[in-house]
Amino acid sequence: MQGVTVVGHPLVQHKLTLMREKNRSTKGFRQLLNEIGMLLLYEVTRDLPLEEVEIETPLARMQAPQLAGKKLVLAPILRAGVGFLDGMLGLVPSARVAHIGLYRDPETLSAVEYYFKAPSDLGDRLVLVLDPMLATGHSAVAAVDRLKERGARDLRMVCLLAAPEGIRHLRDIHPDVPVWTAAIDERLNDHGYIVPGLGDAGDRMFGTR
């Protein structure tokens, strides 16, 4: 699919398989989501711009590369998206964080917003929208809509699993937002869950299933 990167790194695929297992403990699921989040961030930031700066090592002065411009904004969609945060902030501790509270209406499957808080300078930063499951795509579209309303111009979607239906919906409405995912699964079921998937990521992460 155009605009979609499937992260095929062996560690990512291995950890995803462990997370899919229905008997994986809450603790194990949460830890794996944390670890896989760090690995996904490593892949999605491969093209960040660098600039040369002068530093002094214990032996000599030199020109060395460092990240150019302002740092990232991590924008998890509550509640499951926060499962990515610890691992990603461990890799980029200076990143800003936006919180987007959305829930899926069980009847219409549409996204309903209940909370939004973001840095004021979104237009100057790369914004990563985080949600383990890109299912119908309604929550992802609603999150991107709000972030763009607040000035975000450079956005990327990062998820653990995606359904073809969700990818198409997001890309149809926001073709400028590329997607990074660990896997594209077969389809959605009648309840809007990804099949074969891994169940409800939020419930499995917080032990509320």
Annotation keywords:
globular; Rossmann fold; two-stranded antiparallel sheet
Structure at a glance:
With 209 residues, this protein is of the alpha/beta class.
Structure notes:
Helix content is 31%, strand content 31%. The chain is of the alpha/beta class and 209 residues long. It has a single domain (4-206), classed as 3-Layer(aba) Sandwich (Rossmann fold), CATH 3.40.50. The strands form 3 sheets. Strands 1, 4, 5, 6, 7, 8, 9, 10 and 11 form a 9-stranded mixed sheet that branches. Strands 2-3 form a two-stranded antiparallel ribbon. Helix 1 packs antiparallel against helix 2 (26-44) and helix 2 packs across helix 3 (85-91). The longest helix has 19 residues, at 26-44. The chain starts with a strand and ends with a helix. The mean pLDDT is 92.
Write the layout of secondary structure elements.
Blueprint: E1 4-6, H1 10-20, H2 26-44, E2 50-56, E3 61-67, E4 73-78, H3 85-91, E5 96-97, E6 99-104, E7 111-117, E8 126-130, E9 133-134, H4 138-149, E10 154-162, H5 164-173, E11 179-184, E12 187-188, E13 194-195, H6 201-206
Parallel strand pairs: 1-11, 4-5, 4-6, 4-8, 8-10, 9-10, 10-11
Antiparallel strand pairs: 2-3, 6-7, 12-13
Helix pairs in contact: 1-2, 2-3
